[in-house]
Amino acid sequence: MNHKLNEQTTPFMPTRGVIRSIIPMAADNMLFQITVNGSGLPNCLPGQFVQLWVPGVGESPISVCSGHVGSTLELMVRKVGRVTSALFQMQEGDWVGLRGPYGHGFPMNSLEGKDICLIAGGLGVAPIRSVWQYILDHREKYGRVVLIYGMRHSVDLLFRQEFALLHRRRDMDVFIAAEELLGPALPPVSVQLGRVTDMINLADLEGNFEVAVCGPPVMYKYVVAELKKKNIPESKIWLSLERHMKCGIGKCGHCFIGGALTCQAGPVFNLTDLRLLPEVIECA
């Protein structure tokens, strides 16, 4: 079938993207680098997402995980359904459709001059990666950076090579925890036995910190509780609800929560706004 795509993205029609590289990250997790026709997605900001279309199969919302997005972008994809399973059968040089970016990302401009704490759980590290890459590309604009990442099993650690390099940097503190340590893996990365909340407790968050959080929704109330113990006010906590995405343009209603369409009002919300959406998070 001859699928005809427009050169510029619109709310409804995808543009063509060519898969340039596919990198295995962990079991059922692949990093796809995609080159986009035309002007690309130059206005894509950390925390936003795109709709990825596999011809003849369907489309799926996926958060952008690269901090710099122009003619290329990176997507961390977990094989969990029909669309992602079909994507995993594709090869370098194949093409897909992209539309977007959608939603409101993390407020990088208003965070300038602040200390930043990034907290990720599981696959939530993908959109958080876009934030730390953006910060490192504009390092002079931000203060201290603390990165906290937790997962269930150490073998599920994503971006292992990148974390090995981040550990060596002198301009950020990196804490990684796993509930189960399952043997050595290469390259070696320092992983502590514990949970995200344990790492928050260990981290020095004294100062003018703003916090960006992304992970399974069940972890949010525990993360918020630990941040409050660190005297971080709700107004400085930003949470991503990227797992609620579906169509991206407010038509399907899949992400309708507490009177708001998450794909349009979010997916990134300030915690003070989420107080008005009790269905989303039970804050401590």
What does this 3D model show about the protein?
The structure is a single chain. This protein has helices spanning 82-87, 125-137, 160-166, 196-202, 220-229, 262-265, 271-274, and strands spanning 15-26, 29-36, 49-54, 58-63, 72-78, 95-102, 115-121, 145-153, 173-180, 192-193, 209-214, 237-240, 256-257, 260-261, 268-270. It has a 7-stranded mixed β-sheet, sandwiched between helices. The chain has 7 helices and 15 strands. The chain is an alpha/beta fold and 284 residues long. Strand 1 (15-26) and strand 2 (29-36) form a beta hairpin. Mean pLDDT is 87; it is low at 1-9. The chain folds into 2 domains: 15-102, Translation factors (Elongation Factor Tu (Ef-tu), domain 3); 115-274, Rossmann fold (3-Layer(aba) Sandwich), CATH 3.40.50. The N and C termini lie far apart (53 Å).
Overall 3D geometry? globular
Give the oligomeric state.
Answer: single chain
CATH architecture tag of the largest domain: 3-Layer(aba) Sandwich
- Tell me the strand order in the biggest sheet: 10-9-8-7-11-12-15
Structural class by SSE content: alpha/beta
Number of helices: 7
CATH homologous superfamily of the largest domain, by name?
Answer: Nucleotide-binding domain of ferredoxin-NADP reductase (FNR) module
Rg calc: 18 Å
What is the number of E strands? Answer: 15
Largest sheet: 7 strands, mixed
| CATH level-1 class of the largest domain | Alpha Beta
Low-confidence segments, ≥5 residues, pLDDT <50? 1-9
Number of domains: 2
| CATH topology group of the largest domain | Rossmann fold
Query: In angstroms, what separates the terminal alpha carbons?
Result: 53 Å
The succession of helices and strands, N to C, reads EEEEEHEEHEHEEHEHEEEHEH
* Average of pLDDT: 87
Strand content: 25-35%
Give the helix level as a range of percent.
10-25%
